[in-house]
From TrEMBL:
Name the UniProt record assigns to this protein: Dihydrofolate reductase family protein
Coiled coil: none
SUPFAM superfamilies assigned: Dihydrofolate reductase-like
InterPro entries in the record: DHFR-like_dom_sf, RibDG_C, Riboflavin_Biosynth_HTPR
Pfam families (alphabetical): RibD_C
Domain Bacterial bifunctional deaminase-reductase C-terminal, first and last residues per copy: 2-179
Length: 187
């Protein structure tokens, strides 16, 4: 059975994007970028909602070809492009870069994927992760909390039908002031 991990950069007041989908508050440091790159390398399959997929796929497939690309960005772009991905959307009809499109029931497909043998899966995108949260499918939460308050926007956590009890498994602070925390679900 695969492990499902939900992780993103988040503001101290709990948002992954400020109003207007503004993520300008989240300027990654080298250490934070390396953290996410290492997580990507340890991931067997990435699950995306449409909105985040469109953001990622508009940049990373060719990021390694940019004249000012750093070695870390080149490495990340190659990892991202080559890894297996699934996009859940009923409004797009084509994906690329080692990606499969699912237009049906996301929770049913995520449940099926979790039951397979394989390495960990990451889930990204507030709406998709919210559906997986409500269905009790997420095994671990990874928050890279930036020391900024934005007052509104897209929340990291969705409204839930029931409590989710968690156990802290890691916490550390990067030199840039971002606090990394990892929690696993517990019964």
């Amino acid at each position: 059975m695969r492990k499902l991990i939900y992780g993103m950069n988040v503001t101290l007041d709990g948002y992954i994007a400020a109003p207007g989908d503004d993520i300008g508050w989240s300027v990654p440091s080298d250490e934070l970028f390396q953290f996410w790159s290492d997580r990507l390398q340890a991931t067997d399959l990435s699950l995306y909602g449409r909105k985040l997929w469109q953001t990622m796929s508009s940049y990373w497939p060719t990021a390694d070809q940019q004249p000012d690309a750093t070695p870390a960005e080149i490495e990340y772009a190659c990892r991202w492009r080559d890894m297996s991905k699934v996009v859940f959307s009923s409004t797009i009809d084509e994906v690329d870069w080692n990606t499969r499109l699912v237009t049906g029931d996301a929770v049913a497909e995520i449940t099926r994927l979790k039951a397979e043998d394989g390495g960990p899966m990451d889930i990204a995108g507030a709406t998709l992760a919210g559906a997986a949260m409500r269905a009790g499918l997420i095994d671990e939460y990874v928050l890279a909390t930036a020391p900024v308050l934005v007052g509104g926007g897209t929340p990291f956590f969705t409204a839930l039908d029931n409590w989710v009890n968690l156990r802290l498994i890691e916490t550390r602070t990067l030199p840039c002031g971002v606090t990394l925390t990892r929690y696993e679900t517990r019964d």
